Every structure is written in structure tokens, then in C-alpha cells.
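Quick check before the chapter quiz. The format below is the same one you will see on the exam, so make sure you can read both the input and the output lines.
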Amino acid sequence: MINLLCKVPDTIYVACSGGSDSMAALSFLRNSRRDVKVAHFDHGTMHADDARKFVVEYCRKNKIKYTLGTVGRKRLPDESREEYWRNERYRFFEELDAPVVTAHHLDDVAEWWLFTSLHGDPKLTPHKNGSVIRPFLSTHKRDLTAWAKSRNVPYVNDPTNKNLAYMRNLIRHRIMPQCVKVNPGLSKVLKKKLLKISKE
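Here is the expected output.
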């Protein structure tokens, strides 16, 4: 079941990569009376061309306005590839003329909490950061994927999501499953914390 953790404005962009999460979020929010546009960021990877073409074709077919962004500088020596892409992606979001909704979900929250914990400073993903809003943080990825499948919403899978050279994938595929064995209720604990913070 999809739940919104916070209020979503009437005019928004949905950050859409073409994956099941963002396509489900786009479909879900378009069911309302909101003015919904798409923001797609091209990371310059091998999969990027296919993802961009998919999103553009979907938007044109469904008469959705869209804006495309891409990296605007070279990666700094002290930036990981993931940091570089994230920094450039959020720079693009901040340049848009309306708030941007991302499809970050509860599984992302758990992975980020684990990543930051391993670095000695456990953090929960905030539901708002500048003009970026994350209303799906209390919803599991499986629920977003189920929404897309039940409504025949197309999406593409990024093959790099299985590449363990990226820290997020190592945590997602190798470390998180072991953590859940230790505490099967980890997501529930983090969800309670999110709900509490969102009401403060």
C-alpha cells in the first residue's frame, strides 16, 4: 500500500529515472488533480541513453511536460561516482521552477541509515530537503512496484543496480539481508521514527 508521509504541492516535478519506483510515483501522483511534470537526469552512464529515450517517449505518449538535465562539470578528485552524480542531480533539481518529488522509499531509508551508521553518524533520510520532497519514505519498494505492475505502468531496469562496485548496491544486496536476519523489524522501527519526525 502506498502512503504519503507529507503533503505534496499542487504543482510539482516528479524525478523520473524510468525505473519501477519513479514510474509508480509518477503514475500515483498523476491520479490526483495536481499539475505534474517530469524531471529526468542523464547521468552519462551506459544505461543513460536507453533510460532517457524511454522517459521521453513515455512523456510524449502521455502528454506530460518534461525537463532534461545532465552533468555540468567534471568529477572532483575527492568525489565518489555516486557523490558526483547525486550532487549534480540535486543541482539540476534546484534549478527547476517547482518542487521536485522523488520516489525514495522505506528500503532506501534503511539502506541510508545503515550506510551512515557504518560511518559513525546514523541518519534518517529527511522527507524534505530544499525544494526536494520525499513523500514515499514510509512506503516499501515492493508496494511501488506492485502499483506499477497492477496498472500496467511500463518501466526499465538499470543493470548497474546489481553492480557491487557501487556502495549502495553492496549494502542493498549483501549487507542489508544480514542486518534483517539480526533485526527482522528494522524497517518498522525506522518507519516509526520517520512518522514521528514528520509530525514535529
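If your answer matched, good. The mean pLDDT is 91.
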